[in-house]
Specification:
mainly beta; 3-stranded antiparallel β-sheet; globular; CENP-V/GFA; zinc
Length: 142
């Protein structure tokens, strides 16, 4: 699997663990703030299976909680990975994968910290497949 940041300055390659890629969602306050989103999609991969393809020198590290480092692209701000130095795994930010990982989330943690306004499955929410160049919704072809 390969992933990259918004501007493309930073890219990585990772091989899922032998047990397969287990995607989770996290709605803790720290993840919500770091991603400016109601949840972060993450997956753990062995550190030995992760390598930078380009741009590691363009990353910045922020210790968001004691012992947890978040690696960001210093150009566009995308969070690339999180890690606890010395642990055997790193946490990929699944939304940065360039292709479909072929699996879906298996857990959602810190639901108690999810914002009250976040209810993707609520009735009455209009859904669109795309957003047009002039700021107009694009209906799904039926």
């Amino acid at each position: 699997m390969q992933g990259s940041c918004l501007c493309g300055a930073v890219a990585y390659e990772a091989t899922p663990p032998s047990s397969g890629l287990q995607i989770g969602l996290c709605s803790c306050r720290s993840c919500r703030k770091a991603h400016a989103a109601p949840a972060n999609a993450y997956a753990s991969v062995p550190r030995k299976n992760f390598r930078w393809l380009r741009g590691q020198d363009k990353t910045s590290i922020y210790e968001s909680s004691p012992g947890k480092n978040r690696h960001f692209c210093s150009v566009c701000g995308s969070q690339i990975i999180a890690e606890h130095p010395g642990e055997t795994n790193v946490l990929l930010r699944v939304a940065l994968l360039d292709d479909d990982p072929g699996t879906r989330p298996v857990e959602h943690i810190f639901l108690g910290q999810r914002p009250a306004w976040c209810d993707w499955d609520a009735d009455g929410i209009t859904r669109y497949e795309e957003w047009g160049p002039e700021g107009e919704p694009v209906a799904k072809d039926t």
